[in-house]
Sequence to fold (324 residues):
Amino acid sequence: MKDLAELMNYRESVRVVDATLRDGGLVNDFFFTDDFVRALYRANLAAGVDYMEVGYRASKTMFNPADFGPWKFSDDEKIRQTIGEPDPALKLSVMADVGRCDYETDIRPKSESPVSLVRVATYLHQMPTAIKMIEDAKSKGYEVSCNIMAISAVQEADLRIALAMLAQSPVDTVYIVDSFGALYPEATERLMAVYRDTVAAAGKGIGMHAHNNQQLAFANTIEAVATGADWLDGTYDGMGRGAGNCPMEHLLGFLRNPKYKLYPVVQFVEKYMEPLRASGITWGPSLAYLLTGIFNQHPRAAIAYTKAGRSDICSFFNEISGQD
Fold:
């Protein structure tokens, strides 16, 4: 059980990252209007959010720009055209997936970009390439995080080796990413201990990016911050791939730092997120996503089930569990 003071107090070192455009973009192929993006930026600024992730920096040779909205690629020119030069109080970030970006050419020096933070997303087996990307971004003047995906599917011994590699790299922050929404707070606590022993001991920050398959994204984020994580991801109305993420309104409602304001988030949800849902864009917990979380599987099967409009949940259970 956590010391109540750890939950009721606040740390100046905590940073909140809004991932609505990036993780939420996986729901609507990144087709957000410019008005939505500008309003989201203003809401984050008013709410005291520290970073706004404006999307991926994906390769245009691997992904056809005609198939996606602009925030799949988050070009510096598009960011400036839509948002302008960012207010120093709200920094911008992009995510670069290992193997899905042309980072050497598409991530220009920080002096030429409105972006401050590059988040390198990687699976454990891609760690050598991830470290090359981290070194490249750091040499160009960016803050850099490493987001280790599918953390619930890795062995602790392998994780420790990867974290030891990151501890020797110039990365600033290393994230726990519960891609499958499979973690329980007890597992988050154990992972935090491993991260503290390795990357935190080397002076790196720890971050938490949770998915909501079992409706535990908020609980896991609380567990992470209570045990030492300083970088916390949220999305407005929980918008994100499949079951979505830790809702920003939950997160800012919980954090005790008076710099964070909840009302601008509530305003944005009412004016922009509820109409988005009403338009037919779907995200959030469901029984299908719960099952992929319980079975520690990628939610792609539940996404396909949902898109197909299926209702035979018992058949789906048998399909993903391997039972007849």
The chain has two domains: 4-278, 287-321.
